[in-house]
Amino acid sequence: MRISRLVTLLAAAAPNQRGATREWEWSSMKRFPVFCVLVLAVLLCAAAPAFAGIGVGTDTRSIEISRPLAAGGTYALIPFSIINTGTEASGYGILPSPTSKPGRRVPPSWLSFDPAAFYLHPEQSARVAATLHIPADAAPGTYQIQLLGVPKLPDLAQGGRVNVGVGPLLSFTVVAPSIWQRAYFVFMDHMPWSAVAVFVLLVLVVAAIVLLVLRRRGRRRPADSAVQGAALAAASPSGRTI
Amino acid sequence: MKTSRMAILLAAAALLLPATATSAFAAENGTVYGRATMTPVMSIVISADGTEADLPLIYRGAAGEKNVHPDRDNTFMVTNNGASPVSLYLAFGSNPTDASDPASYYDLGSTCGENRAVWTVHAGGADSSYDVPAENTAPVQMTRSFEVDGSSWFTSLFSFPSNYTGGTFNMSLLITASAAQ
């Protein structure tokens, strides 16, 4: 931006061949030192060391879950984007960070991200899907946490590092689960064995019902034939059975 | 006859239950929670010493020594290169950890003492100082509204723990940005 301004000024300061009058020459002579200063400034800009900057950005200000979430559940959250706004390619990760806003703190262990780590070239972005796992013993209340996209710095590098982080603010409310939700979460936590157990239980119940019915029908048959025989004897005019 | 029909109905209902439950679980798994509020891109970029792999901030001091400047140029610049104003915060990155023994570390905090160091960031233009907050604590707000294309220079100082016995340690701080308030 600055360079383009300088170029415009240079163009304005450059001698114009069409109006070659003395006045013009005098004014262009006066402009000459300005021209020299501008040329020098351009050269200095070119020679100055270019700072490599690490940067991060997002277009998602916040993620708000208005529906209360039952403790013990697992919830897929709406994805958000992380952009490399720096001048260097870098690896990135998501760092759940406490906020200064009121509300309970979210332990980072409640959150998982897909992808958890990714590599971005300058101006490249990635969509990150977060999943929230709320333990069954989580205290009811409003929770807030900042989901920061953070460039990955070398772990074993010596000394102090300055890093940046930008990301959406996540807020949600946790409520105690109902008995049905609790049963559902227990069922889901123990999948697939819970499904197998329920299936086996159902098969046993069905088998028991069928057995019970067959046994009842087996008992009823002799009694039914005796009743039929007595009825036939009563209907015969001679009073004898055939 | 009626009993056998009842049994068949019961058995069918019992077998129908897992099928219904399975479809209910599938619907639950497909739900995406949350309403995202979009914004013009919020972005900050940071440059100068301490931000590049080969240019860390090195502080050399003794036990209990306070406000030690780093070896080289001790300033770093933060620029709002996004499309919306942001609030700047100073947040915890990592505690000073021994490079050779990760189990050995000091805590960062706002008071210097045994096993506790203070890492201070000084905002040049605003002439105010902020301590890097301790682990699991809220970030410190440095700038309420950091305008688009705005830049700020920061310097940093380090105060050593009273029981510092030497050695090379690694640590990091975070400059974070969120929507301006």
CATH architecture of the largest domain in chain A: Sandwich
Broad shape of chain B:
elongated
Largest sheet features of chain A: 7 strands, mixed
Radius of gyration of chain A: 40 Å
**Strand segment tally of chain B:** 10
Rg of chain B? 27 Å
CATH fold-level topology of chain B: Immunoglobulin-like
| Number of distinct beta strands of chain A | 12
Q: Counting H and I runs of at least 4 residues, what is the number of helices of chain B? A: 1
**Main beta sheet of chain B: strand number and arrangement?**
6 strands, mixed
CATH class call of chain B: Mainly Beta
Mean pLDDT of chain B comes to 86
Class per helix and strand makeup of chain B: alpha+beta
Brief summary of the model shown:
The complex is a heterodimer of chains A (242) and B (181). Chain A has 242 residues and is an alpha/beta fold. Helix content of chain A is 38%, strand content 31%.
Write a structural description.
The complex is a heterodimer of chains A (242) and B (181). Chain A is an alpha/beta fold. Chain A folds into three domains: 2-47; 62-183, Immunoglobulin-like (Sandwich); 190-242. Chain A is built from four helices and twelve strands; from the N terminus they run ααββββββββββββαα. Chain A has helices spanning 2-13, 22-47, 179-189, 193-235, and strands spanning 54-64, 69-70, 74-77, 80-83, 90-97, 104-105, 111-114, 117-120, 125-133, 141-151, 159-166, 169-175. In chain A, α1 packs antiparallel against α2 (22-47). The radius of gyration of chain A is 40 Å and the shape is elongated. Residues 1-21 and 42-50 of chain A have low confidence and may be disordered. Chain B has a single domain (44-179), classed as Immunoglobulin-like (Sandwich), CATH 2.60.40. Chain B has one helix spanning 2-29; strands at 32-33, 35-48, 75-80, 86-98, 107-108, 116-123, 128-131, 140-146, 151-159, 169-179. In chain B, a hairpin with a 4-residue loop joins β6 and β7 (128-131). Chains A and B meet through β1, β3, β10, β11 and β12 of A and α1, β1, β2, β3 and β4 of B. β11 (159-166) of chain A pairs parallel with β10 (169-179) of chain B.
